[in-house]
Each structure stands twice: as C-alpha cells, then as structure tokens.
Amino acid sequence: MNNLPQVKVGIVAVSRDCFPESLSVNRRKALVKAYADKYGMDGIYECPVCIVESEIHMVQALEDIKKAGCNALCVYLGNFGPEISETLLAKHFDGPAMFIAAAEETQNDLVGGRGDAYCGMLNASYNLKLRNIKAYIPEYPVGTAEECADMINEFMPIARAIVGLSDLKIISFGPRPLNFLACNAPIKQLYNIGVEIEENSELDLFEAFKKHEGDERIPAKVKEMEAELGEGNMKPEVLPKLAQYELTLLDWVEAHRGYRKYVAIAGKCWPAFQTQFGFVPCYVNSRLTGMGIPVSCEVDIYGCLSEFIGTCVSQDAVTLLDINNTVPADMYNESIKDQFSYTHNDTFMGFHCGNTNTKKLSFCSMKYQMIMARTLPEEVTQGTLEGDIVPGDITFYRLQSTADCKLRAYIAQGEVIPVATKSFGSIGVFAIPEMQRFYRHVLIEKNYPHHGAVAFGHFGKALYEVFKYIGVPVEDLNYNQPKSLPYPTENPFA
Asked: What are phi and psi of 316, to 5 degrees?
C-alpha cells in the first residue's frame, strides 16, 4: 500500500533543571533499547542533541528531529520535566505528539534517583490545555521502559492516521444519487481536520474515461484482473472496460493530487453510470481499496474518509458496507444459536453490491449486479464482485459530519461469523454485542446513514484515540455499550 504514510516518531527526553539530568538521559536510553528489543528501530528516532530543560533546548530538539525526518513526536518525561518547554515542543512540532513519563525503578534509589515524573505529567497536561495544544496521552501514561515502549507502539497507528489526514485529498465524482441524501457531506469539517476535497462532475470522469480508449496498458491490466479472479471471472468480456476505468482513476489521482500525498475517492456508481460507461465500478473500487486508495460508493465522502482512517490504522484493506438486513430466524436457530453466545438481535448482515477486496472474501465471482439488473439491461450491470466476507474479528465504525456541521463518530467491535449468507453481493453475517441497543440508541438516535466502514480486526482503541485527537467531542463518540451502561435515551422501563 503506497498511499499510506510511514511514521517516524522522534523521542525527545525532557528534564527539569532542579532534577538530575542523568535521570532523563539514562531513562531515554533504556526506553529506546526496550523498544528496539521488542519492535526494532524502524519507526523511531532517539534525539541525541540535548535533554530539553529550556526553550533553547526545545528549539534545538525540534530542529534535530525535523532534520531526521520525524513526523510524529514522543515527549518523554524522564523526571518532573519543564512544563513550559515540553509543551512548546508539541506546540511547534508539525505533527501528532504524545506525552509519556517514567516510573521509578527501585525502592533502593528513591533519593537521588527519584524523578517525580508521575507528578510532572499533571503539570504537562495542564499546560497543554492552557495552550490549546492537542496531544495523545495514553490511558495510564507512566511506566517502566518496557511499558513506555508499548505505549509508543500503540501510538504508531494513531499517528499514522493523523499524519495521513493532514495530507489527504478526497476526490469525488458527481452529486449523490437521488434518495441517498443520508450520505450528506457538509465539507466544512473536512477543512477543520485538515483534509482537502476536490469535487468533480461525473461528466468530467466520463470524458477522462473516453480518452483512455485503446490505452496500451489495458491488456496488462486485464491480465492482472484475470489472475486475481481466477475461476471467479464470470464476465471476462467486461474486463477491458474495467481495466480502462481503473487506469482512468489511477491517472486522475496522479494528475489531481496536487500538493497532497494521499488520496481517497468518493465515486459515483448509479443511476446513469451503468448506461453511459457500460458497466458497474464495484470490482475496480475493490481493487483500488486493496492498493490503499479507498473508494466509497454513492459519493459517500465521509464514508471514504472513514475508510482511509481505518486503512491507516490497520495497514490493511477495509470496506464500506450497508448495515443492511436482519438475519432470518431459521438461519439464526440453525447456524448461530447453539454455536455462539450472541442473541438473534446481536446479528445482522453487512452488504454492498461488490466493493469488498478479493482478499477479504472467502470466495468470489465477478458478475452482473442483481439489484441494478432489475431495472436495466443486465449487460450494463456487469462488474460487481460477489462473495461471503471472511470470518473473523471486525471493527464497524464511521466518522460523520452532521447536517449542521458537527463531527460525530461511532465504533463497535464484533466479528463476522462463519455462516453461509445464502445471498448475493459482498456480504457477511455480522455479530456485535448489544447490537439491538446500539442500532436504536446510536445509529438511529444519532441520525447516522446506512453506510459503515469495516476494518478487519479489533482496532477500536486506536480509532477512539484518532477521533478524539481530531476533535470529535467525547459525548458524540459512541460505541456499543454493555447492558450495565444504559444510553441517555434508553427507556429504563423497556
């Protein structure tokens, strides 16, 4: 995936001048060694220039980590720390920052060897707030060298997402289809979080597509698709058009990324797309998403933004699905009830026409799109990718701007159950604990659209921190709450 940032965290140790500087020096060295022993040195840089005790040291450290190519910062309190200089580090650093602190090592060295970083972290957090500086602080930010190394590792996917968003451009094509206003996209919040957007007409895209007729790269692209689909290549006659379309999108990305390093696409897929282009774009969308360039359906701008964040966090392909239909009672009773601990209402089916990457499907075939073929000639609906989604852990999530331009997000961890869907499209049987209550008191109550992003694994912890960092208010950062924790709108007598 070449559409994702590589994170390099500069580790800068700080020291208050009335504490021994050696504490910060030795503890920084121990931290770096602990990280290297467990995770290797890739992705971190130990700032050797100075221990930051003053504003002058702060400037020297910033210049050093910038020269070293660091795009994320770890401020490490080896002792109490200089609350002004250390927070200025985060203020003037152009990238995500975290603050962690050293625990005391031994009862045998609590005089000259006591650092009081436990206390210093309180002052650091207070000063960050005074200066309106964003910083990631772990759940318990004080630890041994080994524990702090783990904290830095947990910061990596968070930092990757923040760096990615700061250099992201979303490219959209066409207005949203009729009756899909639910995927509304007030773009003000995109600018607020540092994301650029380029909105285009689908006519612009069609013109670019026509210009790619006869492109000499099409045969090689067709061979790629044939190799990927294998026996699932049910409509080989449409592959040249799909290859032409993929090349059109990839060339558009390179020609229009401008000064931005990373790109995501909110694409148009109906109602006129099929009759004019002569196919549906689902399979191509799935391939670009597998390359690390998420493509959402139905011009869902916040859907593709959510996908990009999940791609940064997981470093893997994601997908965008409708929270689509209930699991029939007979399927639940036969295949789920006695095999899993989920109630019937914990389960549902996640579905889309065919935009999920082949690597995330248990089996697949590329064929025509059944729903669209009900009202259109079947031959213009070819290009969708069908198959059951691979079983395993998932995180269902979405970042959304409301109609009145407020940021809101949800996260729910669960799994895809290994149950045959007996249906069509890219589809899976999903189970999320307390889904019934989450569906009613978050998805419905908070007016979320039907699209949700899916990351393959449990990434709720990192996503929660990313959403907090970019400014989602905690009261609008929702999750599937356990029975013991009622939602504010939940009827206590129900």
From this structure: -150, 165
The answer to whether the beta carbons of residues 45 and 61 sit under 8 Å apart is no
User: 12 near 74, Cβ under 8 Å?
Assistant: yes
Supply the mean pLDDT for the chain: 94
**Residues 136/469, Cβ–Cβ less than 8 Å:** yes
Residue of higher predicted confidence among 136 and 299: 136
Residue 89 dihedral angles phi and psi, to the nearest 5°: -55, -50
Contact (CB, 8 A) for 155 and 72 = yes
| SS3 call for 293 | coil
Q: Name residues whose C-beta falls within 8 Å of residue 41's C-beta, 6 or more positions apart in sequence.
A: 35
**Residue 474 half-sphere exposure, CB side, CA atoms within 13 Å?**
1
From CA 272, how far away is CA 251, in angstroms rounded? 23
pLDDT the model gives residue 322:
94
Per-residue pLDDT reduced to its tens digit, 333-355: 999 999 999 999 999 999 998 88
pLDDT exceeds cutoff 70 at 179: no
Backbone angles phi, psi at 425, to 5 degrees: 85, -175
* pLDDT recorded at residue 262: 97
The pLDDT of residue 178 is above 90 = no
Structure tokens at 159: 């930092």
8 Å CB contact between 114 and 104? yes
175: pLDDT confidence band, cut at 50, 70 and 90? confident
Is 210 within 8 Å of 303 (Cβ atoms)?
A: no
Cα–Cα distances (Å) from 198 to 170, 191, 250, 256, 284, in that order, read 6, 12, 15, 8, 20
Query: Is the CB of residue 35 less than 8 Å from the CB of residue 149?
Result: yes
User: Of the candidates 419, 310, 399, 401, which has an alpha carbon nearest to the alpha carbon of residue 357?
Assistant: 310
